[in-house]
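Hi there, hope your week has been kind to you so far. Thanks so much in advance, here it is.
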Amino acid sequence: MTSTSLANQTIAVFGASSGIGLAVARGARALGARVIAIGRDRARLAAAAGAHTLEIAACDIADEAQVAALLRDIGTLNHVVVTAGGVVGASPLTALDFDAARDAIATKLHGSLLVAKHAAPRLAPGGSIGFTTGVLGRKITANTVVKTVINAGLEAAVRQLARELAPLRVYGVSPGPVDTANWGPLSADDRRARAAKLASTLPVGFMASADDTAQAYLFAMQARALTGTIIDLDSGAQVGG
């Protein structure tokens, strides 16, 4: 056996109100797992969970007391996935809004580490911690220093924690452009135009969906020999134009 089923396992997904996190939660539930979908807004979580029989829990990932209390209440876990991230726009360093940068770092970088800190003692043998990085962690792009620092920091944390927390497994998923609502409020036509423009730069010829991207996490949770590495499920963005 080189993998393990998710059936009857308990999985906590932080950032599950929408996008990749919701797709991971739904995908794991479809494979028979007990899933706790976690986000800041309980009403939004309830609407997103729909008919997928997901448990929901409200938590601000940047607040250590909330993270610690929630994971204590959940109890033993098999896997935890963090997809939560703050919104930070492109900006040159000379015009950077450092308040916004601090918020983004607190949510995605600090928040991921807080989850790992408090989840690790509660993970069952064979358990895993999954972080979400991003193509900007390694693909240098102008005016994206905050996202670059966050993603590169998380990739370094994956490697370090895989050793420190062993035999628990730690991995990261690095998406490229993903077709989610996180692109902001766009009309249907503008959304299609943006997707087409991005697709033209990607070797696979399309922008991945949240469900496409969720497959990496579902694989990683089941691949018992996978740790200390980043899965680049980025539609070929690093080698594209």
Summary: The chain has a mean pLDDT of 91. Strands lie at 10-14, 34-39, 55-58, 77-82, 123-132, 169-175, 178-179, 208-209, 229-233.
